[in-house]
Amino acid sequence: xxxxxxxxxxxxxxxxxxxxxxxxxxxxxxxxxxxxxxxxxxxxxxxxxxxxxxxxxxxxxxxxxxxxxxxxxxxxxxxxxxxxxxxxxxxxxxxxxxxxxxxxxxxxxxxxxxxxxxxxxxxxxxxxxxxxxxxxxxxxxxxxxxxxxxxxxxxxxxxxxxxxxxxxxxxxxxxxxxxxxxxxxxxxxxxxxxxxxxxxxxxxxxxxxxxxxxxxxxxxxxxxxxxxxxxxxxxxxxxxxxxxxxxxxxxxxxxxxxxxxxxxxxxxxxxxxxxxxxxxxxxxxxxxxxxxxxxxxxxxxxxxxxxxxxxxxxxxxxxxxxxxxxxxxxxxxxxx
Length: 336
Fold this sequence. Notes:
Elements: E1 3-14, E2 20-31, E3 41-43, E4 59-60, E5 65-66, E6 71-75, H1 103-117, E7 123-129, H2 131-142, E8 149-153, H3 161-175, H4 190-204, H5 207-211, H6 223-235, H7 239-250, H8 264-269, E9 274-277, H9 288-296, E10 301-303, H10 321-335
Parallel strand pairs: 3-6, 3-7, 4-5, 7-8, 8-9, 9-10
Antiparallel strand pairs: 1-2, 2-6
């Protein structure tokens, strides 16, 4: 299987906010071979605390995203430390000076990568978990004649009020650390990062996950061991990067694209792509009820709930076998 890391220089990008992301670079990974017609493409935008490697358990010959037939590309979000981010931007955009980057800014730049670099003529599927799902919705609205199918799992077409409250809470846990210093830190704000991870853990899984001690299936002997893992895992992330992506997440709303008329409902109704929308039954912040509202406004969409007690993390690539089988079945149904 052919694999490649691509670093695509975009130059200065004018953002939806009117600000400028200077000397922007989009990093992506590709798997498989692009067809002569350049139309066998699957796009997997990255999620909040992930890079392109997060999708690796689902990509390959005969896998959920089958490289025997498809050219799979995973573009990294701005702010994730690979594509242009507070941690690697030019000085005028670095750290707390990083501009507001919306979901549509990411999608429009990803479109440039696919069309300018690869000459893509058709996208067979845009799919993704969590923030990857958010981007899939935005792709379908922004490019209705290019995107044939979407499969957003454990995500939404906009950031709901309850989701906003959740994000405000984890942000507060990070920024209350005095070392954070409004983003002007000289050393990582470790107390804030650990608090961010500990608070996030309570939202990532369901009540049943904790009640039934399902964390033991992840190899943890105690609940404290799970919490410690979440603390340590978030120490690996740059604080300003986490907050830049969080603000991108908060910006999510398919009705916000400047070239669109109307709002959220009209944007959803404009989607031409065939769609299977897959929330997790027990997700605490991307709920099946919110997904049902979205599907009502989409002309070619099916709601197919992932049955799992793993909450939002049911959708984590490769994490729960039963959930991944449900996902694989939906991919087969869309592409078959």
